[in-house]
Amino acid sequence: VQLVESGGGLVQAGGSLTLSCVASGRIFRTYAMAWFRQAPGLEREFVADINWSGVGTYYADSVKGRFTISRDSAKNTVILQMDSLKPEDTAVHYCAAPPESVLYWGQGTQVTVSS
Fold first, then answer.
1. pLDDT of residue 96 exceeding 90
2. How confident is the model at residue 54 (pLDDT cuts 50, 70, 90)?
3. Please, what's the b/e burial string for 4-43 (b: 16 or more CB within 10 A of its CB; e: otherwise)?
4. Furthest-apart CA pair in the chain: how many Å?
5. How far apart are alpha carbons 43 and 91 in whole angstroms?
6. Confidence class for position 21, pLDDT limits 50, 70, 90
7. Closest listed residue to residue 60, CA positions, set 69, 51, 70
């Protein structure tokens, strides 16, 4: 297993969650990293990505200003800080690499936001 997510759960609207993705060293050192999500009945969609240096980030319009992606090189970990959560953020969230043409997916972690 090369990407392992954690941190999902149930939260009320307006709350926060922090997702973590531990990657193998080879993947973490080689690729930009991303988060995607998939809600029931919908296609998987892009959420955010961060380049290999950690300087460049990009967000979907739906999460811009509420989510923050970062990477911890000491722990080979990509973090998604999710604030001001909305019910429409409810989905299985996946860590992936590289974002432009994914070769590696994590198993996913469920995020549920109640209204």
1. yes
2. confident
3. ebebbeebeeeeebebbbbbeeebbeebbbbbbbeeeeee
4. 40
5. 11
6. very high
7. 69
Q: What is the mean pLDDT of residues 76-104?
A: 97
Residue with tokens 């997510």: 5
CA distance 35 to 45: 9
- Residue with tokens 């988060």, as numbered in its chain: 35
Tokens 């800080």 sit on residue: 81
Using the predicted structure, report yes or no on whether residue 1 has a pLDDT greater than 80: no
Q: What is the 3-state secondary structure (H, E, C) of the chain?
A: CCEEEECCEEEECCCCEEEEEEECHHHHHHCCEEEEEECCCCCCEEEEEECCCCCCEEECCCCCCCEEEEEECCCCEEEEEECCCCHHHCEEEEEEECCCCCCEECCCEEEEEEC
Q: How many CB atoms lie within 10 A of CB 89?
A: 22
